[in-house]
TrEMBL record:
This is Probable enoyl-CoA hydratase echA8. CDD domains: crotonase-like. PROSITE patterns: ENOYL_COA_HYDRATASE. NCBIfam families: PRK05862.1. GO terms for biological process: fatty acid beta-oxidation. Belongs to the enoyl-CoA hydratase/isomerase family. Pfam families: ECH_1 (PF00378). It catalyses: a 4-saturated-(3S)-3-hydroxyacyl-CoA = a (3E)-enoyl-CoA + H2O; a (3S)-3-hydroxyacyl-CoA = a (2E)-enoyl-CoA + H2O. InterPro entries: ClpP/crotonase-like_dom_sf, Enoyl-CoA_hyd/isom_CS, Enoyl-CoA_hydra/iso, Enoyl-CoA_hydra_C. The lineage of its organism: Bacteria, Bacillati, Actinomycetota, Actinomycetes, Pseudonocardiales. Could possibly oxidize fatty acids using specific components. Gene3D superfamilies: 2-enoyl-CoA Hydratase, Chain A, domain 1 (3.90.226.10), Lyase 2-enoyl-coa Hydratase, Chain A, domain 2 (1.10.12.10). GO terms for molecular function: enoyl-CoA hydratase activity.
Amino acid sequence: MTHQTILVERHGRVGLITLNRPKALNALNLELMREVTTAARELDRDPDIGALVITGSAKAFAAGADIKEMQPNSYPQVYLDDWFAEWDQLAQVRKPIIAAVAGYALGGGCELAMLCDVLLAADTAKFGQPEIKLGVIPGIGGSQRLTRAIGKAKAMELCLTGRMMGAEEAERAGLVSRIVPADDLLDNALATATIIAGMSAPIAIMAKEAVNRAYETTLAEGVRFERRLFHATFATADQKEGMAAFIDKRDPKFLHN
Ligand SMILES: CC(C)=CC(=O)SCCNC(=O)CCNC(=O)[C@H](O)C(C)(C)COP(=O)(O)OP(=O)(O)OC[C@H]1O[C@@H](n2cnc3c(N)ncnc32)[C@H](O)[C@@H]1OP(=O)(O)O
């Protein structure tokens, strides 16, 4: 399939989506959003794919939603078209997604990174929610996901001032799982995704669901949910294989069922 604003590649069991609007610093226009969500859903359905990576360029993961596209729109238009609701489809992807972020991840770019499950940052990464400087507020979940990731104090400051934070501050705050040198970012992301894609596919999906549930429910409900999924892992062939492999002192051969 031909894409205008993204590149899609396969690296073994990993699907790689690269944002590709370099002249606009990967600003997220409606076409790019559709292409990313469509590609991610296709990779999610593909049994030969176990994990996804989304990345941008060295200068920008994405500098936000496309301001030039947004600017002339009226309230009835954005409301009736339910602008940015389509990004919710990325949150519905069941396989783990890694965001490999170098350069600017601002506004919708930061929100796209936070829609992913593991956020790897190059030492050049800069995160922020600068929408307030444009007379708007985050619209792809930034005020919610950033607050859950780094806490109210810092999220409030970033959303109210539009200040950017660098990779080290983002890692200290808990937004980023790891910082790597910019030149090694993609290799690290693909290596991490390959490890995840080598696990049992249903078990990886259960692990993602269980961790995500912690964002949405009480501790007691979350622990109950986790326990039910844990019990369900015993209905898979991969639980038998994983434990047998440990006992036999060999690597497991997961069959993804
Ligand atoms: C409202 C919601 C829900 C979400 C949002 O995301 S709103 C947007 C939030 N993002 C921003 O406000 C960042 C806007 N961009 C910048 O502040 C700067 O571009 C920069 C600091 C990221 C980089 O500055 P630099 O001087 O290095 O580069 P520029 O000359 O400014 O940009 C190059 C080229 O890209 C176009 N660009 C950059 N960001 C966007 C964007 N978000 N939307 C549309 N176009 C963007 C920029 O206009 C320029 O293009 P031209 O050379 O054609 O002017």
